[in-house]
Amino acid sequence: MSKADLSKQPEQVAAMFDEVSTHYDRTNTVLSMGNASLWRMATTRAVAPRAGEIVLDVAAGTGTSSASLAKDGARVVAADFSAGMIEVGRARQAGNPFVEFVQADATALPFGDDEFDAVTISFGLRNIVDPQKAIAEFYRVTKPGGRVVICEFSRPPLAVIRSGYFAYLRYGMPVLVKLASSNPVAYEYLMDSIEAWPSQPVLAGWLRAAGFEKVAYRNLTAGIVALHRGFKPLTAASAPSSVPTEGE
């Protein structure tokens, strides 16, 4: 059984998600205690896809989020690094003419500049070896005036909730994983990566440094998850060549 580590080497991460692809959605529902569908609906509302628009859904996995984005007639390109996830997604979305699957590396997207009306990623930025480089790629492929929406696990601002949440990650989640997942070892990485992920203001800073404007975020489920959004300027220039790291 595969488990990636916090070096987030792409081959390790892809192998890990290949192994959990078949039962991935079911496991997410169990581990999120039913909140996964609520987070997906909030993300779809934030993206606000319209008929005729082209949306890039990065780290789309099996396409559950992509189907939600496409329900009103937007065309959604579901990109993922894991061949296993794409295989399951194509089978599940075979009858959906608005969703197209593409295997892609988020740090080197195989798309042209200014191609998408919106770019979104849910619970995937944390798994990318260089998330700031991925954000720069999101900026590049977004049309001027377009938007980016990131839904990611985050840090609850209240200490009492944060302590309880991290206790759940360390002690409660492993029990549920053994019951729900085909690869419980892989979900040890999930716990490690959530605890190591930076705070909401740091991620907002990464978006601003990449060139996005009107950047804002709001907490979901007391800050266990945060929803970030930014817009590419109508008179967009090239993305800055450097971005700040946490603590700068």
Helical fraction: 40-55%
How far the N terminus sits from the C terminus, by CA atoms, comes to: 38 Å
| Range of strand content | 15-25%
Please, how many helices? 9
Query: Domains counted in the coordinates: how many?
Result: 1
The poorly predicted ranges are 1-6, 238-248
Structural class of the helix and strand makeup? alpha/beta
Estimate the mean pLDDT confidence.
Answer: 84
The biggest sheet, with number of strands, parallel, antiparallel or mixed sense and barrel status, is:
7 strands, mixed
CATH domain class? Alpha Beta
CATH topology: Rossmann fold
Overall form: globular
Going by CATH, what is the homologous superfamily?
Vaccinia Virus protein VP39
Strand order of the largest sheet: 3-2-1-4-5-7-6
C-alpha-based Rg, rounded: 17 Å
Going by CATH, the architecture would be 3-Layer(aba) Sandwich
Note the topology:
Layout: H1 10-20, H2 24-31, H3 36-47, E1 54-58, H4 64-70, E2 75-80, H5 83-92, E3 99-103, E4 116-122, H6 131-141, E5 142-153, H7 159-180, H8 186-196, H9 200-210, E6 213-220, E7 225-231
Parallel strand pairs: 1-2, 1-4, 2-3, 4-5
Antiparallel strand pairs: 5-7, 6-7
Helix pairs in contact: 2-7, 7-8
Protein name: Demethylmenaquinone methyltransferase
Function: Methyltransferase required for the conversion of demethylmenaquinol (DMKH2) to menaquinol (MKH2).
Keywords: Menaquinone biosynthesis, Methyltransferase, S-adenosyl-L-methionine, Transferase
